[in-house]
Amino acid sequence: MNSSTQVKGIIFGLLAAAIWGGMYVVSDVVLQVIPPFTLLTMRLVLGILVLGGMAYFQREKIQNLTSRQVFQLIGIGILGFGISVGAQFVGTDESTAINGSLVTSASPAFILIFAALLLHEKLTPQRIAAVILATVGVIIIIDPSKADFGSETFRGNIALAIAAVTWGLYSILIRRVSATIDTLLVTLIAFCGGLLLTVPAAVVELQSRSLGQIDGGIILGVLYLGVVSTAGAMWLWNRAFALIDGSIASLTFFAQPLVGAVLSVILLHQEVQPSLLVGGILIAMGVLLSVYPVEKFAFRRPTTELPVK
């Protein structure tokens, strides 16, 4: 893997995580009006419309897909967008934002494990240390003392844990299929697979929970979640895993809470806390540690030997 490909992969992953970092504020507002699986179905439909329009110009690539590849992608979509994102939405709806950030921050660790089990990527001490370092940075930013793991949030916390594990598995499966299939088609067909679960779930959901008052702000929120956070960010995330090792790409996930904290300072005029600076530095160090060999940071003692004539 050359350095330019590695840099592109990291940038794509960071962009996706940055978009998702700003997504939670919008999701919290929209979820008060639209139930979780109904909103997720809307997101996937919008994502299909956007990526489907782009895929129209690559019709020959779609025609070259085998039925086995299509079924693989549909299955991955059910796992990633039906189960994982669905569980995350349910967790966000029934738990707290702090809980969600803490529990889902475990996703990179699961990505690391699945990368070793399924792709036989080396589980080196350096990459393990990088994940631990970045995780500590996230914990410092989030402040676990504000989390609530009482009985009222129990169901939501379980859903968030399921989301963290399944997102790790989804990401690694995406890397596996991306070796032979274009990222645009991977993402598009996976969205269709997700609908197979979210549509029935939304139908059941709406029987016990009706839609709230939908105004212009809610419509804009749904469009942002569907076009930017789903079509755009999911393609970026999938592309990152197509370009670089899963254990490296996983660390870009930690940009989510960092971006969320920065946006709260910019948009909500919250005070810049020392924890934000310390946590951000640790996350950046974790990403750098995963990319560059330790030897590059090591001090090399100059040689004093005379040249041999």
Main traits of this protein?
single chain; 309 residues; mainly alpha; 14 helices
SSE layout and pairing:
Layout: H1 3-21, H2 23-30, H3 36-55, H4 59-63, H5 67-94, H6 97-104, H7 107-118, H8 125-142, H9 154-177, H10 183-208, H11 216-243, H12 246-249, H13 255-267, H14 274-291
Helix pairs in contact: 1-11, 1-13, 2-11, 3-5, 3-10, 3-11, 5-9, 5-10, 6-9, 7-9, 8-14, 9-11, 10-11, 13-14
Characterize the structure shown.
By secondary structure, the protein is mostly helical. Helix content is 75%, strand content 0%. The chain has 14 helices and no strands. It has helices at 3-21, 23-30, 36-55, 59-63, 67-94, 97-104, 107-118, 125-142, 154-177, 183-208, 216-243, 246-249, 255-267, 274-291. α9 crosses α11 and α13 runs antiparallel to α14 (274-291). The radius of gyration is 21 Å and the shape is globular. The two termini are 39 Å apart.
